[in-house]
Task: structure prediction
Amino acid sequence: MKLTGAELIIRLLELNRITTVAGIPGGANLPLYDALGASSIRHVLTRHEQGAGFVAQGMARASGRPAVCLGTSGPGATNLLTAIADAKLDSIPIVAITGQVPRAMIGTDAFQEIDTYGLTIPITKHNFLVRSARDLLEVIPDALRIASSGRPGPVVVDVPKDVQTEAVEVDHLPAPVRPNPPPRMEASEIGRAAKLINDSKRPLLLVGAGVIAAEASAKLLGLVERASIPTAATLLALGALPHNHLLFLGMVGMHAARFTNLLLDECDLLIGLGVRFDDRATGKAAEFCPRAKILHIDIDPSELGKIKEPALGITADVGEALSALEPLIESDPRTEWIRHMRGLRERYPLMVPGTDDPLRPYGIIRHAAALLPEDAIITSDVGQHQMWVAQAFPFTRPRQWLTSGGLGTMGFGMPAAIGAALAAPNRVVACFSGDGSLLMNLQELATAAEQQVTVKIILLNNSHLGLVRQQQHLFYGRRYCASRFEAQTDFVAIARGFGIPAVDLCEARDPLAALEQAIRRPGPGLVNVPIAPEENVYPMVPPGGANRDMIGGDFDDAKPA
Ligand SMILES: Cc1ncc(C[n+]2csc(CCOP(=O)(O)OP(=O)(O)O)c2C)c(N)n1
Ligand SMILES: [Mg+2]
Result:
């Protein structure tokens, strides 16, 4: 059969079960859109390419499968960069297919020409500049395979316009892509790992996003319970264990509960699973887990020893490693260590003030959680609201919590929520956002309205760049420079302007009834929750400090979480 490059791309995407793509058309990718229009793939027209990148991320994070976004050359491609970089730092499998000027015009500063290949080298797992339509037969499957194999990550495929229109004779299309097999483990290493665990009196597990990527939560639970190992999670791994599991310690690091960081100081073995020892998790790395040997298991060998030198580092798929370990691990109640953990938890719990008041941070999170279905998907933006949700939301399952961790990108939450809702149309998606963050991709409210996705934006509105204000409060002598929004923004009117029902909890006669109504109604909605600007996230490890040196968190009016 004769196909153009554009038709070939679409056929290969269809073949690989890509059913929804997000993007924006332009001169250099119009042939691709022409082929897309004739296909079964659903296209989600975002209002900014960064939105398309985050919609794709939302689909990928919620489903675990690679997702695709599209942009034209030049500004289309540069607008995608932040979402691509974000996917790189959080190891999310997206494939961005960009239009490029025709081959003969590359290097001439043609209209909307930018070196997308060059620009994306440092922020992708891999990238391609396609030189002939025939190459697409390999490049598109390779892109999907690379994005989703091993440690996942973003891939860019830059396709010149005349490659999209070039016709090629194709005898048969390649089989659907399968991820590369994970690296082979050495049985002897697994044996040594089991010995380290069995010999340990005070082991502690630190789980990272790799556990979610490997779909290894059930196996993790097996190890945790069999060997009685207290388990902490990084920001991205929340949900890997249910929040109320007796051995779960919550989030580690900068805004962890005191007992969590204190217990880490005392363990004699730290088992890092699918973690990269990010500085927000470790605090001052040299003082992280000072008494512990480290057993580090990760699918990416470059992570082993990058930040913390392990006693034993194993390159493996975390799920496969857990399966291999299971028969070698001795059942052990570790009574003394667990009793010690309970004591610390009682003495230094996470204190959460204002849980009854829906106009206070922990209060709105608790009330929303009670009203949302247990399997609701939760996204957030970046700031204080993100940390409050991470501390206090009762996550019960993996892939329930989608947040921008490594890059910390304001503007992530709402478009990612749209993507999650597209990937999981039968689930409710709630996006906890901040007034600063929501404004960064506000235009995607139009996309949410157009797609009628069930995305509930719960806006913790403190009229500030709250996390910036908090740092100025604590570390810059209360000199608040550029963290307060002088102009008041009427988010309820704005949402309604986009055709999205909205309510202000401050004005509602019965705030809880208004919240419930907003959550129950199908389709998108926005709930504006005024929050006092003085509310801060505690405890907090000062930037650069050791985790044990956290400050704050002793509220007069607080209950333990
Ligand atoms: C794109 C981007 N620009 C700047 C920052 C730095 N930054 C981190 S948190 C924050 C404030 C976020 O404000 P808001 O969304 O209102 O959340 P709040 O902290 O008030 O809850 C800023 C400016 C960032 N993370 N991302
Ligand atoms: Mg704010």
